[in-house]
Amino acid sequence: MLALDSQFLVEGALLTEPGGGLRLGLGPLGRFASLEEALSKGSQAVFYAPDFFQSDPLPWLAFTESHHLTLKELEEQLLHWSERDSLPSAQEESWQEPDLEVFKEDFFQAQELFRRGLAKKVVPLVFAQRPGSVSRDQRKRALLQALRSLKYLNSSKGWGPSSWLYGYWSESEGEGLLGLSPELLFCLTKPGELRSLALAGTGSLDGPPLLSDPKQLAEHNWVVQGLCDRLGGLGEVKVGPTFEWALSHLKHLRTDMEVGLSKAPDFLDLVNRLHPTAALGSYPLEALPLWIERASDSNRSRGRFGAPFGFYQKPEVGPSWAVVAIRNLQWSQGQTLLGSGCGLVAQSQLLDEWNELNLKRSAVRKIFFGRS
């Protein structure tokens, strides 16, 4: 097993690979305005981690060391560090939860857009928050808990890993992001081929079938349509069947897509073409500014929730890919946020959507803290 330097927990990044392993970035963190600048510095691991609105002037994160580990190898390394450091027991965290009244206003604003024919689907966000960042010891525990969650995920359906572990952190900057996303934005798997998927429609594992729910199907189908619209300009799009996909704490509707590329696309061009999908933005995309203008503040100050998070390498070296940064914790400026979103369509019911938001945040707590 590779003996990782424990500085990885001080400043590092990771992302699940398409084959199921992990790509890690270690060493001093460099921030760059462009991919070309990051590569020109001889960086060995280059991650793309903008905010949702891609307004960060330095979205490229580069590290001097790049390592590949299996999930088991990272778990063993984290356990070794934990035993060496003799960590005290984790303490309960106190979160300030979102306000139903604020969400209710967002819900009715969305319904007005639907009534006027200005949108078919929008995605409001809410955030639980607490003071302080995610400490080094908390990151260690959260990573271990997430790796344990991954052991129980069903990977028998669909292409790629069952979920994508991702994140970066810098103690000197006092910020970071750690998530376990079920949603792939794209993967350039090999020359001439691109993979993506539509993920929308959510329920509890013991809930009724999502494929029999008209609202869940409507929400999902707008995401499928939105992706087909944007992927169509790249080549022939093959759309797989929609199926119910069970994860460790939730289930979703999922549709896989494959594109036979007519020419090799640029990484950033792909991000700009696909982000945000209707799963986190709106359908049609042109409705997003209208929605953001009318929605509550949490929809404008969402940080990296729902943003692309990717890893770049030259095509001759291997695939490049990006996931959608959901099911995460993000921290900066002395505050930690835990977000959740829900897809609203004309058929949506207020309390059903509120319960879905709570269900998703509960799943994140179980993934990283082992409790809801």
3D architecture notes:
There is one protein chain. This protein is of the alpha+beta class and 372 residues long. The chain has a single domain, classed as Anthranilate synthase, CATH 3.60.120. It contains 8 helices and 19 strands. α2 packs antiparallel against α4. The radius of gyration is 20 Å and the shape is globular.
Oligomerization state = single chain
Radius of gyration: 20 Å
Helix count? 8
- What's the CATH H-level homologous superfamily? Anthranilate synthase
**Overall structural domain count:** 1
Q: Which fold name is given in CATH as the topology?
A: Anthranilate synthase
Strand percentage: 25-35%
Q: Spans of 5+ residues with little confidence (pLDDT < 50)?
A: none
User: Overall pLDDT, averaged?
Assistant: 92
Q: Note the overall shape.
A: globular
Concise synopsis of the structure shown:
With 372 residues, this protein is an alpha+beta fold. The protein is built from 8 helices and 19 strands. The strands form 3 sheets. A 9-stranded antiparallel sheet has the order 3-5-4-16-17-11-12-14-13. An 8-stranded antiparallel sheet has the order 6-2-1-9-10-18-19-8.
